[in-house]
Write a structure and sequence with these properties.
Structural class: mainly beta
CATH topology of the largest domain: Jelly Rolls
CATH class of the largest domain: Mainly Beta
Number of helices: 1
Largest sheet: 8 strands, mixed
Oligomer: single chain
Helix content: under 10%
CATH superfamily of the largest domain: Galactose-binding domain-like
Length: 661
């Protein structure tokens, strides 16, 4: 093959390609039609094949190149190359041609296996060589086989000499030809690489078990010409058509059954012609490969597997003398019997139950469901619900579960009992601290709630002593454990409680609001004495007493619950303090002291006087003796002094006083 890698070669290639374009435009379609007709003529005679006696795939791996041909893969007169683009007369074993650049199509092996290898051949300039040879052993003399191989033209552009391969079958001496077959030109593919299968049938002479297959080029290599890929070489026994089916229908190749519900299936193959003395052997594959079924040597076979799974069947045939050899058998098409697991119909219900309750039905899972039951009930749900069930809903509920084409049926009996009629008695009113007897009826057993204040919550007539108004609920049960409820209210009237509030403090002339509160059921209240109150029948009257006084709040029950309740509040009335702003401590007996009116009525009051420098010159608690204007027994200088008087009742008085001589 000539590759156009430099300027001189490019010019040669240009002249060459011009010639090729003219020629190939005329011949390409004819070549393609010829190749297709050749392939079609080969395969129109296909009948039945056996498992391949030889299947050469060239292996697989993670490396792009696999190395030279292994001994069990064949031999070649070509030179091995590890290059992505081997030269004329060379070959390589690789899993992709992506590294060949734009000269070859990028492709992977024929089967698309991950990392699968193929043989890639750059044809020799001479066509007297062979590029592949292999001895095949273990064949059966007198048996017909089909040889096949997948080949593709690798070239992307013009091809001066397309691949044209002769497959030759020889005796083991390498020269005695048994049969040969020529592919004709394998045309250039312009839309992308395409694998083409070539196959032919041959009959092996009696007594012959080994043959040699040799592949030779009928076209020269060169630039650009005769570059090809080879993959998946097989030898398979070939013989009369074996058409297997279920129950004699040639179109029935699959069947489905249910485990535990299977019916026998008959596998049949019409009598075959083409063997002198045919023999037969049925085989089965359950996932571990094909094995012979003992004793199954007729044209029909009755099967009845009961275990779920997928079962594959086929019939093998050969001449009687060769039937024991796997290398001599042809096989029919595959029949598939699928045995599905039968669903388990486990049906449950919350039975027994009482009228008015909710019935919950359930069945084990499947793909579809069908329920029937009393009172015209039907459903397609897995877990149907019947609310507010009546006595008419009692009876047998049946569910059919379907999974695939398998089904199972089961039932459950539902019992529905009548509800009791509960009566908790009439509402009652009591005073706080009193008791009353409750009276329920309608069942055989009773349960009260809440239990607070009850002597026994499990009897029909417990004694109730609640501290507050309480609604009691009684649950009544009958002999079938059906229940009903009713309620009764025990109203508790509270006894009167009086609270006159905190003591009050005011100054003469002021007013204060009393903070009385009253508790109890249906009570009234009043204050005593009623002097100096704006209203003696309200809880918060305004009091304006001129002097200290104690008021009493009276709370009375209007329904006769408990005695009258009382509470007192003391109102302290302070005298009004009058502070003079001048006095003259000069010993003349007139205005010699600082006489503060009513300050002596505040025994806890603190009086402080400061000079203009902030020095404390006088302090007293209470004011039983008026200040005489002295500090440390010495008269203070005349002037203005500042005072702070804390009455200790929340009031603080401040200002100035003038001391004169």
């Amino acid at each position: 093959m000539m590759v156009c890698f430099n300027r001189e070669r490019l010019q040669q290639c240009g002249r060459l390609f011009s010639f090729i374009n003219v020629r190939n435009m005329v011949n390409r379609l004819l070549i393609l039609i010829f190749a297709l007709l050749m392939f079609t003529s080969i395969n129109t005679h296909a009948q039945s094949l056996g498992d391949p006696v030889v299947h050469i795939t060239f292996g697989a791996g993670t490396s792009t190149h696999a190395g030279a041909l292994a001994a069990d893969s064949g031999t070649t007169s070509y030179t091995y190359s590890s290059a992505d683009f081997p030269t004329d007369g060379s070959y390589t074993i690789e899993n992709t041609t992506a590294g060949a650049g734009n000269v070859w199509w990028s492709t992977t092996d024929h089967t698309g296996n991950t990392g699968g290898y193929m043989m890639v051949v750059n044809a020799s300039v001479s066509k007297t060589d062979y590029f592949y040879k292999r001895e095949v052993d273990g064949l059966c003399g007198g048996t017909t086989y089909q040889f096949s191989a997948w080949i593709g033209n690798l070239l992307r552009s013009e091809d001066l000499s397309p691949p044209n391969i002769t497959f030759g079958l020889y005796q083991t001496d390498g020269t005695t030809l048994i049969q040969s077959y020529t592919t004709g030109s394998i045309p250039l593919q312009t839309a992308g690489f395409k694998w083409v299968q070539f196959a032919f049938n041959f009959s092996l002479p009696d007594g012959t078990s080994n043959v040699i297959i040799k592949m030779t080029n009928n076209s020269n290599g060169g630039a650009p010409a005769n570059d090809l890929a080879l993959d998946d070489i097989t030898f398979s026994p070939y013989g009369p058509a074996l058409v297997a089916s279920f129950s004699g229908s040639t179109s029935s190749t699959t069947a489905t059954e249910c485990a535990g519900q299977t019916t026998p299936q008959t596998l049949t193959v019409p009598p075959v012609t083409g063997y002198t003395n045919p023999a037969y052997q049925w085989q089965i594959d359950t996932g571990s490969g094909w094995t012979d079924i003992s004793g199954a040597t007729a044209l029909s076979l009755t099967i009845d597997p009961t275990t779920a799974g997928t079962y594959l069947y086929r019939l093998a045939s050969a001449e009687s003398a060769n039937i024991s050899s796997l290398s001599c058998r042809i096989v029919s098409n595959v029949l598939t019997l699928t045995v599905n697991s039968a669903p388990s119909a486990t049906v449950t219900a919350n039975t027994p139950l009482c009228t008015g309750n909710t019935l919950n039905l359930s069945v084990s899972s499947g793909s579809s469901y069908s329920w029937t039951g009393p009172n015209g009930f039907t459903s397609t749900l897995q877990n149907p619900v019947i609310s507010n069930i009546t006595a008419a809903g009692a009876g047998v509920y049946t569910a059919t579960v379907t999974s695939g084409n398998c089904s199972a049926t089961n039932s459950v009996t539902v019992s529905v009992y009548a509800q009791p009629v509960a009566d908790a008695g009439n509402d009652v009113t009591i005073c706080s601290g009193e008791s009353t007897t409750l009276n329920a009826s309608g069942g055989l057993s009773y349960s009260w709630s809440p239990t607070t204040g009850l002597s026994d919550p499990t009897i029909a007539n417990p004694v109730a002593s609640p501290t507050d108004t309480t609604e009691y609920v009684v649950t009544v049960s009958n002999s079938n454990a059906c229940t009903a409820t009713d309620t009764v209210m025990v109203n508790v009237l509270q006894k009167p409680v009086a609270n006159a509030g905190a003591d009050k403090f005011i100054t003469q002339g002021q007013s204060v609001t009393l903070d009385g509160t009253a508790k109890g059921s249906n009570v009234s209240y009043y204050w005593t004495p009623n002097e100096y109150l704006n209203n003696d029948t309200v809880l918060r009257p305004v009091a304006s007493p001129p002097e200290d006084i104690t008021y009493t709040l009276h709370v009375v029950s209007n329904v006769g619950c408990g005695a009258e309740a009382t509470d007192n509040v003391f109102v302290r009335v302070y005298k009004k303090v009058v502070i003079p702003n001048t006095f003259t401590p000069n010993g003349d007996g007139i205005n010699d002291t600082w006489d503060i009116v009513a300050l002596n009525t505040y025994p806890e009051a603190i009086t402080q006087v400061f000079n203009r420098y902030g020095t404390l010159v006088y302090k007293s608690k209470g004011y039983s003796i008026a200040w005489d204007g002295k500090y440390n027994n010495q008269l203070v200088p005349a002037g203005t002094y500042y005072y702070v008087i804390d009455l200790k009742n929340g009031n603080v008085l401040s200002g100035w006083v003038l001391v004169m001589r």
